[in-house]
Amino acid sequence: MTSKAETGAGRRGLGWRIAGWAVGTGLLLLVPLVAMRFTHEVVWTTSDFVFAGVLVFGSALTYELIASARGGLVYRGAVAAAIGTAFLLIWANGAVGLIGSERENANLLYGVVLAVAVIGALIARFRPAGMARALFATAFAQAVVPLAALGLGLGSMALIWTQETLVVSGGFVALWLLAAGLFLAAARTPTPAG
């Protein structure tokens, strides 16, 4: 028995889902565009719209390409949790910065966290058990970055910065661990044949 993906029906469905994500991204970007007409609190530049569009659509496309390659609700949830965490990390770091302000060069250290996730995922070939290990390593990298920044004297060293950064980073560690746990559960879940 062949699956929908093997017959090409799944691929046509994937195309429609990707088109839906593109439309959804466009509609989502209308929110700040309309808000700019009514308030001076929202001030986006063209580069802000491009960044947001690429980040939203890129995240959705990545989810579709990874999750559609493998079945299982738990696996899809794990992929969504991992990509969602990466999305939030990039968005928060770009918008306000996690170490001091968004202009602090120390925030570039969070690129290491994302690199660990991406390289780990590629090494694991997106298999659930390997993804779990990759995301445990990512959680560790997430925990180390603010400590390394503090140890190296990067960013503003105010006490409030240190406390806020450690709390927020701890939240991201928890999200990475949640995704890793979901991948572990997916690895233990038998996949239906055919």
Characterise the protein shown here.
This protein has about 190 residues and is mainly alpha-helical. The protein folds into 2 domains: about 1-70; about 70-194, no CATH class. Helices cover about 75% and strands about 0% of the residues. The protein has helices at about 5, 10-40, 45-65, 75-95, 110-125, 130-150, 160-190. The protein is flat and about 50 Å long. The termini are close together. Mean pLDDT is about 85; it is low at about 1-10.
Features:
2 domains; 77% helix; flat; disordered N terminus
Distance between the termini: 6 Å
Strand content: under 5%
Number of domains: 2
> What is the number of beta strands?
0
Any idea what the radius of gyration is? 19 Å
Number of helices: 7
Unreliable stretches (pLDDT < 50, length at least 5) are 1-8
What share of the residues lie within helices? Answer: over 70%
What overall form do the CA principal axes indicate? flat
SSE arrangement, N to C: HHHHHHH
Task: Determine the mean pLDDT.
Answer: 86
Instruction: Tell me the structural class.
Output: mainly alpha
How does the major sheet shape up?
A: none
Work out the oligomeric state of the chains in this entry: single chain
